[in-house]
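Figure 2 data, in text form.
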Amino acid sequence: MINVRTLGREAQEKLIAEMQQNDGKFTPISFGSEFETGKMTIAEMIGTDDGAREFIEKITYDMATGRDAVPLVYKEIYSTITDPNFPETFTAKTFGNIQVAFLQKFEGGEIKFGTMGAGTEKKVSMLTWAAGVEYNEDIVEYNKTWQVADIGQAFGEAYNKILNHLHMYPIVSAVYVTTAGGLAGQRAKQTASTAPAAQLVAYDTTIQKTLQNALTIMPEGARLLVNSYDIPALEAAIAADMLPDNSAGQVKRRLRPSDFIVYDGNSAVVGGQTYTYTGVTAGECYLIAPKTQFVEYIKHELRVDSGDGDLSRLILAQVVGRTRRGVFAGLTGSKGVIKVDISA
């Protein structure tokens, strides 16, 4: 019987770090000479206290390998706040434009304090996300070490898939509108202090011109969330943005292929049911001003427990992972996001 909990994300990261070479790739790990030589079986790992810790470490390693196969693409967009004291629900607020000016200080005069524009408030809920895997009696009877690894890796892949989905879905599923009044009207509505609206930039002659319009509406945009299908066209458009004097145009100065964040979505099939994680639609992209208005709140990272199984189904061990976290995505404002139509 196992009743072991990993020490949380910090302990997992420490374990993972010990398994990595300088190039960041995972290398084989030793789970004890007795296990490697076949003297220690899966049954002993699951059924003894001495083997339990080794078993949970192997699961952690296999999960880390699976997570390595599904990169977290949202990290360049969101900042992270971790606090175990987060309540179940709370109100997050983004600050409006902050205006500060340094003025000469004269004797007897007062310092001029800056002003802060009205921000937007949004309710954040800390939700629990959990998944479990089971190890059946056949794995033990036939000492299927490779299947133990496959299960752990699939668990890790599933965790990163849901993290990407939680952070990208608020962006790709939102409603974007094209406000009347041309670029000036759209910029004003994007940054309006009252009833702002995230903007949709229509295609205009070329991808290059369309991106230029997007940067005019939201000059602080610094990342492009894209579908992999559109990368060649976007790279060509940026490279072609040259002025008559052979200097780089606005688009080429502001955006580079290294600023692309590719998210085509993903899916998972469990028990015959398909779970689809929506990605960026080909022919569209999103210009994002990262970090300031995009925050992930983590009460705790992935925790993993392994416990008793279910004899009636010949399950010898169950492994359950869960995390509690919330997401804030501020789409409007000068540091928000706008949707860009890049298909003619």
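Caption note: The radius of gyration is 25 Å.
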